[in-house]
User: Fold this.
Amino acid sequence: MKSQLVTVAFLLSAFSSSAQENTTLRSNVHIGFAYPLSTNGVKAGLYTNKFSAHALFGLSFQEEAFCAAGIASVITQNAQGLVASGVVNVIGSNVSGLAAAGIYNYAGKNVHGVQAAGVLNMAHSISGVQAAGFANLANKGVHGAQLAGFANITDTAHAQISGFTNIAHESNVQVGGFLNLADSAEVQISGFINVSEKCDVQVAGFINVADEVKGTQVAGFVNVARKVTGVQLSGFINIADSSDCPIGIINIIGNGEQALGMSINEIGTSIATFRSGGNKLYGILGIGGNFTDNYEAFAVQAGLGMHIPMSRNFRLNTEVTVTSLSDRRFNTDLRSSVKLLPAIRLGRFELYAGPTFSYTTTSDHQGLGRVGYSLWSKERYYQSQDLSIGFESGIQYQLNSKKLFNKIFFEKKVEN
Assistant:
């Protein structure tokens, strides 16, 4: 960040000494072709102008209203109003207004207004907007917004929006097409990954990683955090030392519950299950099959559940699951179920049994026979439907969640 492009360093160093000789020269209008072919001549670097226009490139000490050049404008100190160049603007100190360049903008100190470049903007700090086709760099901070086609990098920012990545120490809002990185952020939204030490809201297409979340983590695949005060919503996995409301198929929560079990329902489908989550919400993942009455099919199950405590050793587990039962050739039963499963806890073991309410669709007529007590059924073309009441019972063993979590994810941290 603190290093300058070679061209910037050359231009500024070339004219800084001459600018210090005299800073009192003023001109209302400065017209030129290319330095020193202009109305201010070889002393152009000593002039403060109100209006400047150059066919190729121009040099001045300060600009107070308007400056334009076909290729480049070099202003060794401050610029106010509009500075516009076809290729590059180099401003040694502060900018108040709009600096627009076809490729590159540089401001040695602060920008109060807008930096707009086709490729790259660089400044010490921004109070306003940095907008670039490729990248924005602000050494100290941005009190406003950074908008870039590829990357935004700064220390602190109100808002960062980029097509690829945003990097900041602190940021209120980060929206990136691929990656957001921040020590502290209020909102991070990314197409792939968010990484933050502290964050209120993280939304990612693939993964969120944070130390502490006070709000919500939403990811298409996995959320990882040490502490979540709020909701973790994932398409597959949530991981946290503590989490109030994990919602996902697999939830590895240090202060929650993980259990391995076996269940069977009224039609003889047996499933080995892994239930995992917090103290209330949990996810369900299972695999099994049905091999009764000359029928051979394999089952895959996924769902969500909630624990409702009744007493120390008794509770009601309510679940919503989807189970696919397929013979792996032509026939597949898809069963969506709501379950009410009273459970009694005996140490680390839990026994449960209760009624189920299911909607089954199947691709073969025999599928209607693989349901419980049918309340309603319908056949249409090659698809059969059924509403039924059945039951499910099972047993599961509670794992040591805290020990499991620390061993897998934070073993080194715990040892320290």
Q: What stands out?
A: DSSP finds three helices and 28 strands in the chain. Confidence is low (pLDDT under 50) at residues 1-22, 412-416.
